[in-house]
Amino acid sequence: xxxxxxxxxxxxxxxxxxxxxxxxxxxxxxxxxxxxxxxxxxxxxxxxxxxxxxxxxxxxxxxxxxxxxxxxxxxxxxxxxxxxxxxxxxxxxxxxxxxxxxxxxxxxxxxxxxxxxxxxxxxxxxxxxxxxxxxxxxxxxxxxxxxxxxxxxxxxxxxxxxxxxxxxxxxxxxxxxxxxxxxxxxxxxxxxxxxxxxxxxxxxxxxxxxxxxxxxxxxxxxxxxxxx
Length: 228
What we know:
Number of helices: 8
Distance between the termini: 36 Å
Low-confidence stretches: none
CATH superfamily: Uracil-DNA glycosylase-like domain
Strand order of the largest sheet: 1-3-2-4-6-5
Largest sheet: 6 strands, mixed
CATH topology: Uracil-DNA Glycosylase, subunit E
Helix content: 25-40%
Strand content: 5-15%
């Protein structure tokens, strides 16, 4: 029987090789070719970005899509940009990450009890995936969540991730997104909402470190209720 880690690795290979959405493929590859001046000497990933983390995760963090010069450059979710600095910083403070920042896919970062993923696996123009692109990616997310069978909590960053997770998990009626929103599913799992760690939220103060820390502390209490 193939173990979970191997199955997730095989899924990661499929995600990286996917060319199903012409607009996204064109954009991700153009960004990887043109590059940002600060990264002109780097080789961009420029492919679909797989999920990352602990295969035995109890908490799944759901984003939106890879950033053009973040995960599309490094090949790892929320790695190499300001949003990732915020997310990994919060995970580190919560005792769920081995280091407070993630700058590259080979920087030694490991996660404890957490898996990071997104509904869309390629960087979209303007950070706005089309509905058909979201739907083309959906089977990847369905298979991934099925493999992450120990996960009991999903922390969705932003309304897009929150709505897509609720839809995928069959939550009805559609719950309203809000920072700190909490939905108990029929099977006992929990969906938590947080403002996205994008700069438009963190630079403006709409999302603060204490607000983000509180969401992950709540996720930990729900995921491991017997821990002190």
